[in-house]
Amino acid sequence: MKSLVLAEKPSVAKEIARVLKCNKKNKGYCEGKDYVVTWALGHLVTLAEPEVYDKKYKEWRLDDLPMMPPKMNLRVIGQTSHQYKIVKHLMDRRDISQLIIATDAGREGELVARWIMIKAGWKKPFKRLWISSQTDRAIKEGFDNLRPGHAYDNLYHAAQCRAEADWLIGLNVTRGLACKFNAQLTAGRVQTPTLALIIGRENERNNFVPKDYWTITADFGDYTANWRDKNGSGRIFDYSRAQALADKIAGKTGVIANIHTAKKSEMAPLAYDLTELQRDANRRYSFSAKKTLSVLQGLYERHKLVTYPRTDSRYIPEDVVSTLPDRLKGMAVGEYARFTAQLLNKPIKTTKRFVDGSKVTDHHAIIPTDEPLNLSALNSDEKRLYDLIARRFIAVLYPPYVYMQTTITTVVNGESFYSSGKAVKSAGWREVTSQIPERKDTDEDVPVGQISGTQHKGDKKLVESYRVKKSKTKPPARYTEATLLTAMEGAGKYIEDEELREAIKQGGLGTPATRAEIIEKLLYNNYVERYGKELVPTAKGMQLIGLVPNELREPELTARWEMRLSDIAKGKDSRKDFMDGIRKNTIELVKIIVHQDAKAYKPDNVTKKKCPMCGKYMLLIKSKKGNMLVCQDRSCGYRQPENQGRGNIFKQSKSEHNINKKLIAKYSDNDSFGTSLGSLFKDALKEQKDDSK
Predict the structure, then answer these.
(1) Residue 689 CB contacts under 8 Å (≥ 6 apart), including other chains
(2) Residues 352 and 484 in one domain
(3) How many Cβ atoms from other residues are within 10 Å of residue 605's Cβ?
């Protein structure tokens, strides 16, 4: 008897097959003496469309909402049905005694496998391969320590709840908006409150009124100092007061009232989780969150140089400590060798600050594997991302950065001026990260005085000159992907209710694995645009937020849901209770949309070109094929490329083909047009001209 191994991607499956010596290659699977290894192509099975439950749902009508199937059905995805048939055939083989789930070790990977099993009718035993890297060693150890499949039932239930909640809320709210306002509008459980964050920041900027303020710097000859009031603020919002203060110190002699020197140490930042890595990659290299995840996936799957990407932990468990020397040896190449040698020359010291299994959920922090590093095999983006991970990993194991900080307080005519400076005692972990360029998201003034070692308390200091600098307060910065990821992760802090905010402080918008996808959806749907690194809401996005129910746009509900999904995965919450709440919320959201004013939405992308079918002005929208002209009347459904000439025939998608076929059947008695509308357009235009004469 043999074991069937189900991986998520062909590349991963083939690596597993190689390790398991499944050398016989077949279409859609590899086979060996003890194992048969096959793969999904991402999802092979998904939730069924509304029309599967009732044919009336083929037409989008407000009266048919909400769509609330009592039980959610599954269907095979058409584009990958060929692979599903292969997997099902293998599952049905009599010589297959058990299934080993080897999809990605996370919520979504579990869903991929379980839906295939349910659709194919799998009834035999199954186990779970749970590994955090794709090295040969990790794969072998994983198969030596397979876990019971049912141990991950709660993880599957959480993934199932997420998918069903997105179906119920996303499809119902989207159809509701589309039908109510006759427009191409979409909304979702996570993307809508994320859009609301971006628009909220834009509104803050638009409502911001800049104010003039002044700062005063005094020059004492061998150092400069900045004025501060009793509360530590150096901003003066009254020019006459600023000038009076300057006159008060001009040419006067002050005294050093205090010199404070303290030894300070700074620990290295913790290792990366996915969100933190996406933030840094965006700040340093302008990588989008999606690009970071894509490059990271290559480092994980293809090069096997880093551990599992989709993690929300920045810690490692205790059992990984023994592997640290091998990981350091594997990456001891080029400049890294200098840093790793210092760590390998003596026993590696770890603390609870980095090693804490209680803070590791499904996967530990993203760290290098023990796979020998070959930098020449990496492209430039892969090198950049690996460099971030490698340096951060080494830095965590390095001693702290130690410096002496000296602060001098100089009092002139009753006014206090402050200078501060640092003297490095030990570079520590900063030696490792010094070559990584630092970029700031803000340009806030941080005055630093020049401190000499010859100053003493009680010394008299003449104000040799002074400077009164005028500045303006600045509006809050627009979100970049880096700062938006931070906001999504900590969405709980935007909740006004203090008790609730504390209860769900760990809740956020989306998960590390889904946040990049959410941002891309907002961009694709033209709700947000990129201007350099800034994310700017469009007029369409601004209108949408005004149309969706308040409950859906606020982070409170979504953050609460995400927290509950996490609890379901841990067995601390009920799938039934969660879905009952989702269904109740769906009904309420649809009711709110139904009762809105249909005239509230006005498309901002209306062109001067009329639809050749119904005569209404067409909308200009972005698509994967380029700019498209789409009839604003959804019941018409006509669309064409922006640059299409009159009567030109263009390549159509399957959906466009079907739409045009229906239109021809509806408006023409001549079936010889096939699926080309060129001649039909000409006749329609000619007819229109004749009627106007």
Answers:
(1) none
(2) no
(3) 16
Closest CA to 617 of 634, 627, 601, 630: 630
The answer to whether residue 616 scores a pLDDT higher than 80 is: yes
The reply to whether 154 falls in a domain is no
Query: Hey, what are 484's tokens?
Result: 């938006």
User: How far is Cα 172 from Cα 66, in angstroms, rounded to an integer?
Assistant: 6
- Give the residue-averaged pLDDT of 59-66: 92
Instruction: Tell the residue number behind the tokens 């894509």, with chain if given.
Output: 294
Q: Are 76 and 66 in contact (CB under 8 A)?
A: no
Q: Which of 206, 189, 276, 272 is nearest to 481 (CA)?
A: 276
pLDDT (0 to 100) of residue 449: 41
Paired residues of 332 in beta bridges: none
How do residues 421-467 score in pLDDT, each as one tens digit? 888 999 999 999 875 544 443 333 333 445 556 789 999 999 999 99
Judgement on whether residues 437 and 516 belong to the same structural domain of the protein: no
Residue 336 known to be catalytic:
no
| Strand ranges for 557-600 from DSSP E | none
- For 302, phi and psi rounded to 5 degrees? -80, -50
Is residue 279 located within the same domain as residue 390?
A: yes
Let me know how long the chain is. 693
Establish if 157 belongs to a structural domain. no
Let me know: does 115 contact 74? Beta carbons within 8 Å: yes
Sort 63 into a burial class: Cβ within 10 Å, 0-12 / 13-18 / 19+.
Answer: exposed
Angle at 347 between CA 344 and CA 349, to 5 degrees: 105
- Where does a domain end: 346, 376, 397? 397
The total of structural domains in the chain comes to 5
In whole numbers, what is the pLDDT of the chain averaged over residues? Answer: 87
Whether 438 maps to a domain, the answer reads yes
- Do both 616 and 572 map to the same domain? no
**φ/ψ of residue 340, rounded to 5:** -65, -35
Same-domain status, 460 and 484? no
Q: Give the structural domain span for 112.
A: 2-145
The verdict on pTM exceeding 0.85 is: no
Cα dist from 273 to 290, 365, 567, whole Å: 15, 5, 20
> For residues 607 and 389, which has the higher predicted lDDT (pLDDT)?
389
Of 416, 439, 472, the last residue of a domain is 472
E strands, 427-577, in order? 460-462, 465-472, 528-531, 534-537
What's the CA gap between 46 and 160, in Å, rounded?
Answer: 11
Return the residue matching tokens 């040419």.
251
Query: Is residue 36 within 8 Å of residue 97, measured between CB atoms?
Result: no
Q: Tell me the C-alpha distance between 307 and 304, whole Å.
A: 8
Residues 376 and 407 in one domain: no
Q: For tokens 């019971």, what's the residue?
A: 148
Catalytically annotated residue among 57, 84, 308, 386: 308
Cα–Cα distance, 282 to 292 (Å, whole number) = 8
- Cα 545 from Cα 567, distance rounded (Å): 29
Based on its alpha-carbon atoms, the radius of gyration of the chain, rounded to whole angstroms, reads: 31
Angstrom CA distances, 8 to 13, 41, 129, 158, 640, stand at 7, 6, 12, 19, 37
> Which parts of 238-371 fold into alpha helices (H)?
239-249, 274-285, 289-301, 324-330, 335-344
Q: State how far the Cα of 220 lies from the Cα of 461, in Å rounded to an integer.
A: 6
CA 283 to chain centre: 14
* Helix ranges (DSSP H) in 186-273: 191-207, 239-249
141 in the same domain as 248: no
CATH classification of the domain holding 441: 2.70.20.10
Domain membership flag for residue 153: no
Which position has the token pair 């609301």?
A: 196
Q: Are residues 28 and 83 in the same domain?
A: yes
- How far apart CA 592 and CA 678 sit, in angstroms, is 43
Report yes or no: 509 and 194 within 8 Å, Cβ to Cβ: yes
CATH number at residue 314: 1.10.290.10
- Asked if the model's pLDDT at residue 263 lies above 80, the reply is yes
